[in-house]
Amino acid sequence: MANTRNGRPSQVFRNLNSKVASIPMVLTASVVFVGGTIWTVVHSFTNSKLLPRLNFVGLDQYERLWNSNKWLISIENLFIYGVLTLIFSLVIGFVLAALLDQKIRFEDTFRTIFLYPFALSFIVTGLVWQWILNPDFGIQAVVRGLGWTSFNFDPLYNQDIVIYGILIAGLWQGTGLVMCLMLAGLRGIDEDIWKATRVDGIPMWKTYLFIVIPMMRPVFVTTLVIIASGIVRVYDLVVAQTSGGPGIASEVPAKYVYDAMFLSQNLGQGFAASTMMLVTVLIVIVPWAYLEFGRRRHRG
């Protein structure tokens, strides 16, 4: 019989069936994810080529990585894409959510329209926007056909602004999800708060800025983590739209890893790049974990 204290079962045996049922999942996560991560990090210090082998070369792969112009360009592109994606997706998503929160007519229809792009794969989104941004039959061709023959809009063919063409496709697909997350947060605000602000004569923009947004901090933090994790892993959009071109102007870290491992057959270099991406993810996850769980523990 389980030990009891004050007539209650001990914490160890509470919800025992659910704990036993979770054992396969825990073992799978431990072996596949944790084990695979450790395996990747270890082999990033080797000179593995076509096949992995434990021939350690120290930090040679990392030195070669950070001396690669292709890797440096991919990091720069990821930074530009990431910062602008975070800013625009949060702003646009929140504004759309605030508009839908006004109990407008056909709200369900508008919500479906805005969220629909998220249901598409990134490959489909990339191909669609590759056609839209194509200067021969996309936006540029349509505008020139209307009489503005000097109009130029070909971001995917200009190495100076190609990353912004990819950004447009990313925002089109991901903003709908941000809108839904923000709308759920807004619907969680007590109606009495809105009534009190109207009685006090507080302008709506001040209500959102100084009352509503601070109350939605958990929603914003969770949304930031979701967006950031997607930014670090961006690959499909780039492959579908530009394949890293023109030249290497639109390279991103995930594509660098794929090219190193499967095209150049340099597993050690791919593992080193993967490890740097892991470090980037940890930089995002650790502050989020502290904000979500550390403060709760301190308050408790």
UniProtKB/TrEMBL annotation:
Protein's name in the database: Sugar ABC transporter permease
Record carries keyword Signal: no
Predominant location category: membrane
Keyword Transferase in record: no
Membrane-crossing segments per the record: 20-42, 78-100, 112-132, 161-186, 207-232, 271-291
Keywords assigned: Cell membrane, Membrane, Transmembrane, Transmembrane helix, Transport
UniProt-annotated location(s): Cell membrane
UniProt family annotation: Belongs to the binding-protein-dependent transport system permease family.
Annotated source species: Aquibium carbonis
